[in-house]
Design goal:
Keywords: Cell cycle, Cell division, Chromosome partition, Mitosis, Nucleus. It contains 25 helices and no strands. The chain is mainly α. The N and C termini lie far apart (79 Å).
Length: 570
């Protein structure tokens, strides 16, 4: 093998040696390391060396500096050079006797394939790495490879492969005895995948034991010192995430759970904690994963604000996400569909239905993620129902999210929402018995998994149906708990709807005092929503509702005043 391999030039070995010396100094001398690597290009090296150097520069800048754009440029150049992957493959072949480098190269090549969306090749390489780590006697690194593979399989929705893999990982993690920080970080990785798996399936109640374990695990990690004894096995010299990053990640999955369950005040509390932690970390660490965490947190809190009646704040946070995404092409590509979805939800909240339709349509064209696609279609169907004159488009959408037949995703939450949309349509069409059937199915599913918002919406709509049918007692039995639940969430729209219904219900039953109290509540909710509506529509960021293609506008022209109908609020 040595005879057939071209010997490196002495200047290259010297520069590489200096670069590694500066990188591993204490403290690291990253600027000098970068200078040495950049000097390689002055010698006009062959393509393999050029590709490898771009990859090394990109990795160093990515991990140790705030210059994420330059890091990305080098990584992209490494990708563009045809020999980049062959270089890594060749290095993998000749590094089998050096466990650390062999594992590291396998991780790097798998990452390149994952970035190119070639998840099959990435999973194959991670499987190879897991077997190599087993042979080398490092169960810790074997678990890292397998958990990384599990993460990609979850992204691909290959659930039949995820279950046995997570079971195997759970056994490895629990049985492995070693460095306490490494063990706990493996547990966090494993539990994050489990929690994400449950939340993707919309199983908000079932996930609670795993989420509790995860929160306990991060408390344990925070008490451990970083200066633990290093592993003696060179194949085990890896770490998944710094513990500060893990802490933010646990906050993030807690927010995701709280949002699905309808505990919006809890979601807000954990979002505030996570964003404060992120601000501190970003002062010292330029890792792109921190921006990704920040964007995902903001996406969730924006949905929270829209429900709690803080549209103006939500709109400003949508603008903040736009600005974050403009700083990174990869971040923009990965989140542009979510941005248009959030704008669609905002448009619904301010009754701009044409804009909502345009935003959801744009989002559908930009995503291949099945759960997000189903969420968008469900909300677009609600727009068509409200407009009342889009029957052909509406029925076409409803066929694609039929909860009784070939529902496109396994999410319990989204399937329950699809039943609610069917119930809403039947209500508007005056088919009340059919509406009740769909809404009772929603209630059964939402109660099973503590989906509080769907429960509140279903109860108030059932209360409205019973009121129309003249069954005031049954209507009251639905509306009162709907109001209590909506207040607990809190969901301003459901509170507005419930208070209006309670006013009419008490008036019809001759309960003058209760009717007056409900009317006062309705007036208060109406005023709060109206003021927020005017504030949101007056913001220059309101112009974002017209953006449906390309990059978001960088600057916004001030609005003269709200241009949208307030009829839906009053």
């Amino acid at each position: 093998m040595a005879a057939s391999t071209e010997a490196p030039e002495p200047w290259y070995l010297a520069l590489l040696g200096f670069a590694e010396h500066f990188r591993t100094s204490s403290p690291p001398k990253i600027r000098l390391c970068v200078h040495c690597l950049q000097a390689v290009f002055q010698f006009k090296p062959p393509p393999r060396v050029e590709a490898r150097t771009h990859l090394q520069l990109g990795s160093v800048l990515y991990r140790h500096t705030k210059n994420s754009e330059l890091a990305q440029t080098h990584l992209e150049k490494a990708n563009l050079v045809d020999s980049a992957k062959p270089v890594l493959r060749k290095a993998i072949q000749i590094s089998q006797q050096t466990p650390y480098w062999h594992c590291r190269l396998l991780f790097q090549l798998a990452q390149l394939h994952a970035l190119e969306k070639d998840l099959v090749s990435a999973c194959d390489l991670l499987g190879v790495g897991a077997e190599y780590a087993r042979v080398m006697g490092s169960e810790y690194t074997r678990a890292l490879f397998l958990l990384s593979k599990g993460m990609l399989l979850l992204m691909e929705r290959k659930l039949s492969e995820v279950h046995p893999l997570l079971t195997l990982c759970g056994t490895i993690v629990e049985n492995w005895q070693g460095n306490p920080i490494q063990k706990e970080s493996l547990r966090v990785f494993f539990l994050v995948l489990q929690v994400t798996h449950y939340l993707d399936a919309g199983q908000v109640k079932s996930v609670k034991p795993c989420l509790k374990q995860l929160q306990q695990c991060i408390q344990t990690i925070s008490t451990l010192h970083d200066d633990e004894i290093l592993p003696t096995n060179p194949a085990a010299l890896f770490h998944w995430l710094p513990k500060e990053h893990m802490c933010v990640l646990v906050y993030l999955v807690t927010v995701m759970h709280s949002m699905q369950a309808g505990y919006l005040e809890k979601a807000q509390k954990y979002t505030d904690k996570a964003l404060m932690q992120l601000e501190k970390l970003k002062m010292l660490d330029s890792s792109p994963i921190l921006s990704t965490f920040q964007v995902i947190l903001l996406e969730h809190i924006i949905m929270c604000r829209l429900v709690t009646g803080h549209k103006a704040t939500a709109l400003q946070e949508i603008s903040q996400v736009c600005q974050l995404c403009q700083q990174s092409p990869r971040l923009f590509t990965n989140h542009v569909a979510q941005l248009h979805t959030l704008l669609g939800l905002y448009c619904i909240s301010v009754n701009c239905m044409d804009n909502a339709e345009a935003q959801f349509t744009a989002a559908l064209q930009m995503t291949t993620h099945q759960e997000l696609w189903t969420f968008i279609v469900t909300n677009l169907a609600s727009v068509y129902i409200r407009e009342g004159n889009r029957h052909q488009e509406l029925y076409s959408l409803l066929e694609r999210i039929n909860p009784d037949h070939n529902f496109p995703v396994s999410s319990h939450c989204l399937r329950a929402a699809a039943f609610y949309i069917r119930g809403l349509l039947s209500f508007f069409q005056g088919r009340y018995n059919e509406a009740k059937r769909f809404l009772r199915e929603t209630l059964k599913m939402s109660n099973a998994e503590d989906l509080n918002r769907l429960t509140a919406c279903s109860l108030v709509l059932l209360g409205h149906i019973f009121f129309v049918l003249g069954n005031h007692r049954e209507s009251n039995n639905m509306v009162v708990p709907a109001m209590q639940l909506a207040s607990k969430i809190p969901d301003m729209s459901v509170q507005l709807w419930s208070s209006a219904l309670l006013k009419d219900l008490n008036k019809a039953c001759g309960n003058t005092m209760d009717a007056h109290e409900a009317a006062q509540m309705h007036q208060n909710f109406s005023q709060q929503l109206l003021q927020d509506h005017i504030a949101a529509c007056s913001l220059p960021e309101h112009n974002l509702i017209s953006w449906t293609d390309g990059l978001p506008p960088g600057q916004f022209q001030p609005q003269n005043g709200p241009t949208t109908s307030l009829a839906s609020l009053l």
